[in-house]
Amino acid sequence: MNQSFQWDRGWQGQLRLVYAKKSDSTYLTHAYHHAPFKIQRSFYPEGKSICHNIILHTAGGMVGGDRLTTDIHLHPHSQVLTTTATANRIYRSNGPLSAHHVHIKMDEGATLEYLPQETIIFNGANYQQTLRVELGTGSTFIGWEIYRFGRTARGEKFIQGEMRSQTELWQDKVPLWIDRQYVPGNEDIFHSAHGLSGCPVVGTLVFVGMPVDSDLVSQARSLITSHPSSGVTRLEQGLLCRFRGHSTSEVKQWFMNVWKILRSNYLSYDIIKTQAIPRVWQL
């Protein structure tokens, strides 16, 4: 079976979002979505300067042959927070690949918080994700990705299939951070100390666009003393957090705490008001 025929069998979803800043307010000026994507109306829990959007995947998950593309463009000085309505699910495949390709372009002085909910990768899934972010001068990006390998509540392990992830962050054509992950589904990788080490949940949070001081690194590390396999690294122009453990709620809580610190110290955003936290995270 040729690859093009495999793609034709699945969803060919597309999402294109364009934001612009006008009179100190950020607006979603262009939105195109093709099933299974949908975008909820913009809302402003923090005032008009920061636009919040929730992305929906109406199919409830991805199967072999699905191919999704997301393109997001922030015009100068726009401020945007995007998240997803629910966790994404990557179902077992009988061979065909499911893929999601994300491209983000940020113009001068723009700020994006790209914070999707977790992705659950079923045993036997064949999944690929790419994320490329191009930052303009003076722009900042906060993003995270959280994976759960297998439906562990049912005793399922990720011992078949594979997951590939590629993330690239560039600013003015200079690479700030490039990361590639490959997790083949087998018992050795699941239990290896150099693989999942028996931990079905992994997560990455990255902040880029400006240097962070050592006090912030220490503060972020102090929140994970019970997780020796997790850590915090200061990048040349940002911060990187890694998690490997057993609980999705633990990694989400840790990432949220680090996100709040970054917001208040480097983005000058007011996170004290509870309505600033996306409502879908509180369900």
Mean pLDDT: 90
What level of helicity do the residues show? 10-25%
User: So what's the overall shape?
Assistant: globular
* Rg calculated over all Cα atoms: 18 Å
Q: What order do the helices and strands follow?
A: HEEEEEEEEEEEEEEHEHEEH
End-to-end gap: 42 Å
Biggest beta sheet attributes: 10 strands, mixed
Number of helices: 4
Pick out the low-confidence regions.
1-7
Strand content: 35-45%
> Which structural class should the secondary elements be placed in?
mainly beta
- The count of DSSP E runs of length 2 or more, i.e. the number of strands, is 17
Number of domains: 1
Can you summarize this structure?
By secondary structure, the protein is mainly beta. The chain has four helices and 17 strands.
What's the arrangement of secondary structure elements?
Layout: H1 3-8, E1 14-22, E2 25-34, E3 37-39, E4 50-57, E5 67-74, E6 79-84, E7 88-90, E8 98-106, E9 111-114, E10 119-121, E11 126-135, E12 140-149, E13 162-171, E14 174-184, H2 187-191, E15 201-208, H3 214-222, E16 231-235, E17 238-245, H4 248-267
Parallel strand pairs: 1-5, 4-6, 5-8, 6-9, 7-10, 8-11, 9-12, 10-12, 11-13
Antiparallel strand pairs: 1-2, 3-4, 12-15, 13-14, 15-17, 16-17
